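Quick one: structure tokens for this chain, please?
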Amino acid sequence: MKSLQPLLADIKFSHTVFALPFAFLGATMAGTLHGAPDWSRFAIQLLFVFICMVLARTSAMLKNRILDRTIDKTNPRTAQRALPSGKVSTKTATILSNIIDLLFVASTSVFGFLWDNWLPLILSVPVLGWLCVYPLLKRFTWLCHIFLGASLAISPVAAAIAIQPETLTDLPIWLLSGAVLCWVAGFDIIYALQDVECDIRDKLKSMPASLGVKPAMLISQVLHCLSIAFLFAVAMSDTRFGWLFQGAIIITAALLIVEHLTVKKWGTTKIALTFFMLNGIVSLVLGVAGIIDLLT
């Protein structure tokens, strides 16, 4: 396990905070669809939603690191990562990735065996396939940021389906997914500002490298505006949400404004603030507020 520590550090389990609160919010939207949930059952379901979320994200990050290892080697920001630096072999990372994939599929099967809901298992392999495409897409299209947003946007829908399959046709769940998509795509464009020169050199199709920094940032701002619009649509289409969730949306809008003003003033020198801290707060504030509203 010690030999894997550099690779595990690259995966950054703490970044699961970006998607996990939305997965729990989606699960709670589904679990309270017909009133208060059966807590003994719901608690176990939430546990397996958590396990599946962590495994899916770990699988996606491992595949990203494996597929990007040659690109990372020529980028000063990423050259010391485990794979490009040779601290961990590609073979070891691939074996670990395969193990994580098997654990993810096995975890989704629990919903079938315990609650006769086989949709998570049926969708598990397509989801894994979807999650590993992002590092390939950025070689071909600047829409790669939208695809990454869609990858995290799966989380509330997948969690809702795992809890209550009939929510597959529930509009508020899909509106929440749309909000996550636009939010993630918007801040991924900001994150890509760090690597503009390397992306141009390596012919990678990030928006800042392909379209220019100013047009890319304008798109990021539009995406974040759309995210706020989607969130208000969630609140209006599901009457179970009240003032607390609406207040969280307003706080989110303020945090995103701060994020863009920070980038405008300091560029990528404050990326720890703009990318990690502010967006972590956004997901936690929305997730916690939404869940409290649904349960009270």
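Residues 2-295 form a domain with the Tetracycline Repressor; domain 2 fold (CATH 1.10.357.140).
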